[in-house]
Design a protein that fits this description.
alpha+beta; 42% helix; single chain
Length: 191
């Protein structure tokens, strides 16, 4: 089902601040709380919203080194098998099948550089099919994770061109990206 302008405005408010009370969302959009609640339930049922989560700052729990690793495989066809094995490594929070110089690009968090060496040399480079890695350590985050708010803002600001594409597919892609980017290890579910 397609989302209308009110649905998109509700999503924008909630992706900006997921803790905002529904009555405030309703008042801000000149709607009733029950209408906002019904729309949220419909978006959950349709898979637009998948869950409510809190993000934990990795540095606050001792993971001080954020790293991007380009991984080269013997054959690109090994991607799914290697990705499945990488999904079992709790420090890896993102894994992408890419074009360019690497077969895969992963993002991981380590406690420090010694821990990073343990993960790279002792785990990742030992996976069957991995032939080489190149590591880039992130020194600081200039911005990030707020891209879903940007996408929803763009949809609200420029509805015609984006709606000519499948909005459901766009939001579904964003959802999948978020799920791969931040696995449950770094999230606490709000039930």
């Amino acid at each position: 089902k397609k989302l209308n302008d009110l649905d998109l405005k509700i999503l924008r408010r909630l992706t900006t601040n997921a803790r905002v009370p529904l009555r405030d969302v309703a008042e801000g959009e000149n709607s009733s709380r029950s209408s906002v609640n019904q729309r949220l339930m419909r978006m959950i049922e349709n898979g637009v919203l998948t869950s409510l989560k809190y993000h934990v700052n990795p540095k606050k729990i001792g993971y001080n080194t954020c790293t991007y690793v380009g991984v080269s495989l013997e054959r690109g066809s090994l991607y799914k098998e290697v990705a499945e094995r990488m999904s079992e490594i709790p420090e890896i929070v993102e894994c992408h099948f890419t074009t360019g110089p690497y077969t895969m690009l992963i993002k991981l968090y380590a406690i420090d550089n010694n821990d990073l060496m343990r993960i790279l040399n002792g785990i990742i480079q030992g996976l069957p099919g991995v032939v080489a890695t190149e590591t880039l350590i992130s020194l600081d985050v200039a911005f990030g994770e707020a891209f879903i708010s940007l996408i929803i803002s763009l949809i609200v600001a420029h509805p015609a061109p984006i709606r000519s594409f499948s909005l459901t597919e766009l939001l579904s892609s964003v959802r999948r990206c978020l799920e791969h980017s931040f696995p449950d290890r770094y999230w606490v579910r709000a039930e």
